[in-house]
Amino acid sequence: MLGVQWDLVPTLVAAKSLGLCGELEAIAFPLLHPDDLRVDDWRLPDTMTPIDFGLPRVIKSTFRHIYIKLIGERRQAL
Question: What percent of the chain has pLDDT over 70?
Answer without folding.
Answer: 87
